[in-house]
Design brief:
This protein is mainly β. The chain has one helix and 16 strands. The chain starts with a strand and ends with a strand.
Length: 185
């Protein structure tokens, strides 16, 4: 058991009987009131976030969580296959565990897999990925107002709005948290 003051971003805790990852922590001392710790947690099982408040001396149960960096290899009917670059061991994860992350997976992309009790529970992508544009319609003549975008299909099948000057075959940088275009790669 640890005190709420010891909470840090990335820790795994047991809250209301469920395992959760701490996303953000703020220690607050308002005026003449008691100090408290405000934390945003994300439940591993459901993926939902919650904003919780702990007293600064409250005891919190920490959970051991293993983080391993794996590289995406390929997808087939049995699931998504990842390889450990150190041991060359292959791990297969199902589509439900990946959720929206599958829209950004390309060969050899390093991802962090969180596991507890020998079972993978979550996949964390890098903050941005570089993907190739496979289909982008031409911009129409006269569409020169500022911030005009067009839909483009990426190599993973995801559709993203990109500026008019992006052509098929170009590589673009995509933010994995929001799914938005960031620039050319």
């Amino acid at each position: 058991m640890a005190a709420a003051n010891d909470l840090r971003k990335g820790m795994a805790i047991k809250y209301n009987g469920n395992t959760a990852i701490v996303e953000d922590v703020q220690h607050r001392t308002p005026g003449n009131l008691r100090a408290f710790v405000q934390a945003i947690i994300r439940y591993i099982g459901t993926g939902k976030s919650a904003d919780v408040r702990f007293g600064s001396t409250d005891k919190i149960e920490l959970v051991d969580i293993n983080r391993s960096t794996l590289e995406f290899s390929y997808k087939d009917n049995s699931g998504y296959h990842f390889m450990d670059p150190n041991t060359y061991e292959t791990v297969t994860l199902n589509e439900d565990l990946l959720a929206d992350a599958k829209d950004y997976l390309v060969e050899n992309l390093p991802v962090e897999v969180l596991s507890t009790g020998g079972r993978a529970v979550q996949v964390e992508l890098p903050s941005s990925v570089q993907l190739k544009v496979v289909e982008a319609p031409e911009g129409l003549r006269g569409d020169t107002a500022s911030n005009v975008t067009k839909p483009a299909v990426l190599e993973t099948g995801k559709t993203v709005n990109v500026p008019l000057f992006i052509q098929e075959g170009e590589t673009v940088k995509i933010d994995t948290r929001t799914g938005a275009y960031m620039g050319r790669a």
